[in-house]
Amino acid sequence: MCWKEKDKEGHLDLEALEMGIRSSMHRIGSVFLEHLLNADGGEYQGSTIPCEKGHEYEFMEYRDKEVLTVVGTVKVTRAYYYDRECHEGFCPKDKALDIEGTSFSPGVRRIMGGWEHIGPLVLGTRT
């Protein structure tokens, strides 16, 4: 498409080339990252794992979670464990990837944190 524009206008649209390549690289990166993150089989740790209170967490199922990363949104498959006595469940993989309680990767959270001090100014509000 950019080469056709060159024929029409006599020059390349460098910005269009840059944005097209950047977008393609993000798509490739998110597919690659998703495969890497799911290569561990969901971080299954057996049918039961110990609870800190002396009970056992029981493997229940695999759960998917969409996570926004710096290269795009990826689906992470995680083993879900539940403690019937504590009435609590968790996915060990969330802790390992530092995505407990969030759908933002550590890289995205770092980027978001860098904008906290100017966020209201960008939105045109004052605090």
Features:
127 residues; alpha+beta; four-stranded antiparallel sheet; 5 helices; 4 strands; 25% strand; elongated
What class, by secondary structure content? Answer: alpha+beta
Please give the radius of gyration in angstroms. 22 Å
Helix content: 40-55%
Q: In total, how many beta strands? A: 4
Mean pLDDT: 88
Q: What order do the helices and strands follow?
A: HHEEEEHHH
Helix segment count? Answer: 5
Rough outline: elongated
- Unreliable spans: none
Strand order of the largest sheet: 1-2-3-4
Terminal CA distance reads 46 Å
Task: Describe the largest sheet.
Answer: 4 strands, antiparallel
Query: What proportion strand?
Result: 25-35%
Question: What's a concise summary of this model?
Answer:
With 127 residues, the chain is an alpha+beta fold.
What does this structure look like?
The protein is of the alpha+beta class. It has helices at residues 2-9, 14-37, 92-97, 106-114, 119-122; strands spanning 48-50, 56-69, 72-83, 88-90. The protein has a 4-stranded antiparallel sheet with strand order 1-2-3-4. The longest helix is centred in the N-terminal third of the chain and has 24 residues, at 14-37. The radius of gyration is 22 Å and the shape is elongated. The mean pLDDT is 88.
